[in-house]
Amino acid sequence: MGFNWKSAGCAGIVSLSVAFGATVASAAEIYxxxxxxxxxxxxxxxxxxxxxxxxxxxxxxxxxxxxxxxKLVFDExxxxxxxxxxxxxxxxxxxxxxxxxxxxxGITLQVLPRTNVDKIPILAPGYGFSPMSDGEVFxxxxxxxxxxxxxxxxxxxxxxxGDLANLKGKKxxxxxxxxxxxxxxxxxxxxxxxxxxxxxxxxxxxxxEMQNQSAQWLQIRRERPDYVVMWGWGAMNAGAITEAVxxxxxxxxxxxxxxxxxDGDLKLVGEKGKGYKTISWNVPGSYxxxxxxxxxxxxxxxxxxxxxxxxxxxxxxxxVVISMxxxxxIKAAQKxxxxxxxxxxxxxxxxxxxxxxxxxxxxxxMAGMTVPFATSCDNHTGHGGGxxxxxxxxAFVPVSEKLSPDRAAIEPLEAAKAxxxxxxxxxxxxxxxxxxx
Length: 437
Description:
The chain is built from 14 helices and 14 strands. The protein is 38% helix and 14% strand. The strands form four sheets. It has a seven-stranded mixed sheet with strand order 7-6-8-9-10-13-14, with helices on both faces. A three-stranded mixed sheet has the order 1-3-2, sandwiched between helices. Strands 4-5 form a two-stranded parallel ribbon.
């Protein structure tokens, strides 16, 4: 079944339900909603991510009849990246859902208390509130394979050649979206700056300034930071990269978090963007899983992508990885509980017992596509690390071995902020029903 998104209309909350073959009676179904944003200021980056997520699920339904005997019902509720609409979508989808995928740090923070009451796991791969890693406090929230604080740590370790002492006396600017997402790394970078003697300069970009950052780049020219770290999204990234080229900021001193590493943004400047880097927990390339998606979804016309080349995008492939993480949690729960049609509480167990090894990735046709990681009752992230990618003028290519975050530096802050959150939202249940061993 095909679907023309452009003719579907985008006003308000749009539900895009894809059961793929639901006309045939299924013994079991698992409802996996996605709070998507194919509209609004972040649509250009949201669309490839959502397409990748959707197509991986579609491939499993078409090729295998679903997962473990259950058809996956993938449903999109359109938020436009708006927090209020995101909360509406959560409420609209929660009654049948085994998971919620908020797709915004702001939405994640708003639904976080609700999921404790509703007992529905949040799956926020590579985004959300970094202390959600603490499974004792955040019993229903997951952000594998690496958190924002993991990403900030890896970026600083990379630019300091593995020793933050090398940054002493230097200035690191954080060009960030003035939004909960963009503010996420600030507590950790502030801590590390104080401990290691470098100057930290946060430079916020308002939602209305994303495409006109002249004031921010005037400040960068005046302050002359040794490095600019970008925590941007959507139109902000393209605006920043264009301004960096225009002002001749050294691109090899410009590094982004994984959501600031979209190949579509760099293609706007092409060769002039050479040297720009991004930390990433997925590496774009040709993988067997993509051949399966092309055969079972794209070629039959069941994908929303405009042409097969869209599958090469780093964000499309990241969407594939994200749905893989969800599906592996479903598989683990099905196996453990001996049922195809798992519920939300059983999926939580599955997400707490992920073991994505190199061998598992090879079996899935995804060897080298993402980082191996494992979760547990008290570790809801896995902290798998990532790679530094560099724009070579035409594509992102790896320029490092797999990097790991400095967990010794992060964990005390993680524990303190988790406890602070629980106290400010008291009575916060945490994992009161079954504490981690």
